[in-house]
Specification:
This protein is mainly α and 86 residues long. The chain is built from 3 helices and 2 strands, in the order αααββ. Helices cover 38% and strands 9% of the residues. The N and C termini lie far apart (56 Å).
Length: 86
């Protein structure tokens, strides 16, 4: 006689949601985040040269990252540095 019961294992439905979360970023944003992580005092002009994007594009990306609360500027605009919150 053949039994319909199988001994297969299923995925644990109690897995934490946070284990599967990803960043809501486009590739350009990830490149900028990587540069900021390497050098928290990086200037926007340096990001322009490193990423090969225009200044307006870098400013748009930085604004997006700020709105998503992924980064924050501390200690002022001119002599401060970036903090990453992800």
């Amino acid at each position: 006689m053949i039994s319909n019961k199988s001994n297969s294992q299923s995925v644990n439905p109690k897995s934490l949601k946070s284990q599967f979360d990803t960043l809501d970023c486009v590739l350009e944003e990830l490149v900028i985040l990587e540069w900021i992580a390497k050098n928290p005092t990086v200037k926007q002009q340096e990001l322009v040269e490193a990423a090969g994007k225009s200044l307006s594009t870098v400013k748009r990306i930085m604004k997006s990252l700020l709105e998503k609360n992924y980064i924050r500027r501390k200690n002022g605009k001119h002599y401060g540095e970036w903090e990453i919150f992800i």
